[in-house]
Design a protein that fits this description.
There is one protein chain. Helix content is 78%, strand content 0%. The chain has one domain. It is built from ten helices and no strands. The two termini are 31 Å apart. The protein has 266 residues and is mainly α.
């Protein structure tokens, strides 16, 4: 009971951070389960996928009601990310059948390097926007979803990133947010709504896949739901008054250290 209350309390903090900054919950909750609660990596990954789904669905529904979602972007990314995530889960099924393979150790490195890569890119972007706002960097071409080329590229991007999410549970929001900024160039309101909505669809199917692995621990999922959902709602309200850049910088710096420890864990 005590550990469940502690997990719910920490999940509330994580949910508030997600609502405040938009930084993905899985990047924070998965390491918290592994290091703070000594949960086996495979169980932490699967439980976090299921737990994060409700938070994303609630957020996506709210943004859909507010009409702050670009449904075209969501549709074409989801057409790639959903089969991609299920492919990632299928790979996990195959890896579990290899007797000599230490799956927990492999997942530990995968989760660590994924968080490290995404956080490093986001941190560099934040530093450039803060200290060199006038620096002109080469822009990636905007994908035109009215053409088959643009749609095919969107599906291919979704497929690749979805596979990573299926394998690690990490960055259903963070990686896709970077892609949406780079290739679709949406305004800020639609960026957040589109990112959360596609993540909700992606995680819904990824959760179903992880349930087939038998590694979801509902005694972890329920406390995370209990804390993270009200935390996200509170964070969203505080978002209007909180200083975004200092908050993001501190959290990114922490994530770099945590992910480095994950990636290099024996």
């Amino acid at each position: 009971m005590t550990s469940a209350l502690l997990l719910a309390s920490l999940s509330f903090v994580v949910g508030t951070i997600v609502g405040l900054t938009g930084i993905g919950g899985a990047s924070l909750i998965t390491p918290m389960l592994i290091f703070g609660f000594q949960v086996p990596v495979a169980v932490a990954v699967s439980s976090d996928v299921v737990a994060a789904t409700l938070m994303k669905v609630v957020g996506g529904w709210k943004h859909w009601q507010q009409k702050t979602v670009d449904l075209q972007v969501v549709k074409w990314l989801a057409l790639g990310s959903v089969p991609g995530s299920l492919t990632g889960v299928a790979v996990l099924h195959l890896l579990r059948g290899i007797e000599l393979l230490n799956l927990d150790a492999l997942l530990l490195h995968l989760v660590g390097f994924t968080i490290l890569l995404v956080t490093f890119v986001a941190l560099v972007q934040l530093l450039l926007l803060t200290f060199a706002p006038n620096l002109k960097l080469p822009e990636l071409p905007k994908l035109d979803l009215d053409t088959w080329r643009g749609r095919s590229l969107a599906v291919a991007i979704g497929l690749s990133l979805g596979c990573v999410v299926g394998l690690t549970s990490v960055s259903s929001g963070s990686m896709f947010a970077l892609v949406i900024i780079a290739f679709f160039q949406l305004d800020t309101r639609k960026l957040v709504g589109t990112d959360i909505t596609q993540a909700a669809i992606l995680l819904l199917f990824t959760s179903l896949g992880h349930l087939t692995l038998g590694t979801v621990d509902w005694s972890l999922v329920f406390p995370i739901w209990l804390g993270s959902v009200p935390g996200v709602l509170l964070g969203a309200k505080l978002c209007k008054i909180a200083p975004q850049k200092p908050l993001r910088f501190v959290i990114y710096a922490i994530l770099v250290m945590v992910s480095w420890k994950l990636a290099n864990q024996a």
